[in-house]
Amino acid sequence: MKTMFVRPLAAVVFLIAALLASNVVRAGDGPGGFPGRAINFLCPWGAGGGSDVGARILAAVAEKYIGAPLVVQNRPGAGGAIGWAALAASRPDGYTISLNNIPAMVLVPLMNRVDYDFADFEPIMLLVDDPALLMVKKDGIFNDFKEFVEYAKANPGILTVGTSGAGTDSHIVVEMINDMLGIKLNPIPFDGANQSVTSMLGGHTLASLPKTSEAIAALESGQGLLLGVFNDTRLPQYPDLPTMKEMGLDISYSSARGLMAPKGTPPEIVEFLRDRLQKATEDPEYIERMNNAGLPIAYMNGKDFKDYYMKQYEAFKPVVERLGLGPK
């Protein structure tokens, strides 16, 4: 009878010991034993969009290079401002990083009052440069960009275009199109591009401005139709799709997504993260999964990424002021 209780008890003790051992904080091989625990990886957009997909692919591959899990946490809302405010308020110890997005990172502070400034962050690296597309429903009322513009001119304010949210980059691009072509598209805000595309496919809005990675599902299902790409050159995967510049609309618009840490994060930790994460982006698994997701890989170090931000800021600031879209 005694043996009958001892064996289950021994098994329970062994199980508890194993669980405790699995949660022991082990020092990493970075500066000062960094990282000794999981790293919070903020994604300031909702699940299912290109930003979220790319973040989760990186998190899945990066652990073996960093030595600790990257735990993706979605903090959607306000065009990214909620997530970035959370990053600015976090401890600068390397245990919280965030996805960045240019031009959203540029435009949101230009158009709204926010609780952070770009100076509150330390750029780590650029990961992706994802061009935007103009998409409508296949077998709908538009077959090409010319018909799209003609309809907008004949029906001011009726042609609805889904955006990733009020004050986001896709919102201001809609306003730029209105300004440059003398038309009146009606921007409809959603909580991310994924919802914008879903609304367009459901016939609730007439068009959407997804990035290439956010358009794949609609195109593969045969439901979406592309009218143009906001890129300087045609995309290799869509060689017959004209650029907006070819059709008389001089706008280049992509989502340059990277990583950043709070200002004050020790330089040696930032450099450790940059080095290990760059290695992760060169991993064959990462490359394959990103290609399958339609996410164009584009590396840029922290300094160059910061310079790129400033160039975008200088380009968009006068546009926002001219359109009267700044904080009221």
Describe the structure.
- There is one protein chain.
- Residues 1-25 have low confidence and may be disordered.
- The strands form 2 sheets. A 6-stranded mixed beta sheet has the order 2-1-3-10-4-11, sandwiched between helices. It has a 5-stranded mixed beta sheet with strand order 7-6-8-5-9, with helices on both faces.
- The chain is globular and about 65 Å long.
- The protein is built from 11 helices and 11 strands.
- The chain has 2 domains: 37-129 and 255-322, Bordetella uptake gene, domain 1 (D-Maltodextrin-Binding Protein, domain 2), CATH 3.40.190.150; 133-247, D-Maltodextrin-Binding Protein, domain 2 (3-Layer(aba) Sandwich), CATH 3.40.190.10.
- 42% of the residues are buried.
- The chain is α/β, with parallel strands linked by helices and 328 residues long.
